[in-house]
Design goal:
Blueprint lengths: L1 H72 L12 H10 L4 H10 L3 H13 L7 E4 L2 E4 L4 H13 L11 H7 L7 E2 L12 E2 L6 E7 L4 H16 L4 E7 L9 H13 L3 H10 L4
Parallel strand pairs: 5-6
Antiparallel strand pairs: 1-2, 1-5, 2-3, 4-6
Helix pairs in contact: 2-3, 2-8, 8-9
Length: 283
């Protein structure tokens, strides 16, 4: 009888691990199923988010395209012609008294292209990277600065206090010449050939301002009024020389506008055409 009891106890001891293992396996299965369900929910959520983002991108694309169309079309579906389109350039020439036939022939033949390229090449060699770019008696000033900035530089040129040292100028100007990698003002003068570029003001003026400009550049249009003010305030002491630098990668009509001004210059009407083109854009 003792042996039977021992055997019975042994059997119980042998079965116990199997039962525990089964429970563990069951728990593992349940845990795995739970994880699968959770992953499934997460996947569904991610899928929904992707679809929503995709729809939002499509919506945004069409909204931007519609806005662009409205801007180009003036908001009413009607195409708006550029103030510097070729037809408008010919119209301006006629309005300021230029021989229309000769002007149109010059503009359409491309004969003015080479003269525009001469100025552009010169500007690149001088390091002018944007417009407008000014050289005031050889001192570089890049950008549509306010009239006060021009006055400071011009007055120093006139009273003999101009130097090539950055620290001899106002603190404001010093901020533009202190950084050698980003100098909007370079007080060290350079020699620049004027060539046959159109000029306005006294021939022997003590101050010469050379402007590299682009007729379609909004900053040049802003500088246009500043230069006009300089011409009024310093009528007896400042000469302005215009150089072509159309930024064709940004302004699609700039090249043809530059050529139009050259064609106008052939008939002695550069400055009238210059003013007409800037003022046609609201300058």
């Amino acid at each position: 009888m003792a042996k039977k009891k021992e055997t019975s106890k042994k059997k119980v001891e042998i079965k116990t691990p199997s039962v525990l293992t089964a429970k563990v396996k069951t728990a593992d299965v349940m845990s795995t199923e739970s994880q699968v369900k959770r992953l499934g929910l997460q996947f569904n959520l991610i899928s929904v988010l992707i679809v929503v983002l995709f729809i939002f991108q499509i919506y945004t694309y069409y909204q931007v395209r519609n806005i662009s169309k409205n801007v180009v079309a003036g908001g009413n579906g009607t195409a708006v012609e550029s103030p510097l389109s070729q037809d408008n350039l010919i119209k301006y020439a006629d309005e300021i008294g230029i021989n229309k036939k000769d002007f149109t022939k010059c503009l359409e033949s491309g004969e003015a292209t080479a003269r525009v390229e001469v100025d552009s090449k010169q500007g690149a060699e001088l390091g002018v990277q944007g417009t407008p770019g000014f050289f005031i008696n050889g001192k570089f000033l890049g950008g549509a600065f306010p009239i006060e900035t021009f006055r400071e530089i011009i007055d120093k040129e006139l009273d003999g206090s101009a130097t090539g040292n950055c620290t001899d100028y106002s603190e404001q100007l010093q901020t533009y010449c202190a950084d050698e990698n980003n100098q909007a003002f370079k007080p060290l003068a350079v020699n620049i050939s004027l060539g046959d570029s159109p000029s306005i003001g006294p021939k022997d003026a003590p101050v010469t301002i050379i402007e590299f400009s682009d007729f379609e550049c909004p900053f040049c249009a802003r500088a246009y009024t500043t230069v006009k003010q300089i011409q009024q305030e310093y009528a007896d002491s400042v000469k302005v020389v215009y150089k072509q630098l159309p930024l064709t990668n940004l302004h699609p009509n700039a090249q043809k506008a530059a050529e139009a001004s050259v064609c106008a210059d052939d008939q002695g009407k550069f400055w009238k055409m210059h003013d007409k083109m800037f003022e046609s854009q609201g300058a």
